[in-house]
Amino acid sequence: MISPTPKPPYHVVIFTSVRTGGDEAAYGEMAGRMMALAAQQPGYLGVEHAGDGAGSLTLSYWESERAIADWKRHTDHLVAQGLGRSDWYARFKVRVAKVERDYGFEREG
Fold it and tell me: What value does the mean pLDDT take over residues 71-96?
């Protein structure tokens, strides 16, 4: 699904990961909780996700860098980050960028 976003500028966090394969059930549960919790945060605009069991790409959209920083420091998110480092990720990369322009296409019908 393509996340609806406002007119730029806005910000995006690009999270690319490769998983260890450990405890899939716990990972899935935590990922679902974090998606729901992020959606409740001030400044959250939406999310897009693609991937398989081994690796994935998640893009989350935010109104501001401040909103991103607040989400990064959220207590429950800090717990998930710790578990990611200790149990679920072989490696990951986080990139934060400002979206200056966007455009798209949607077929009618």
Answer: 96
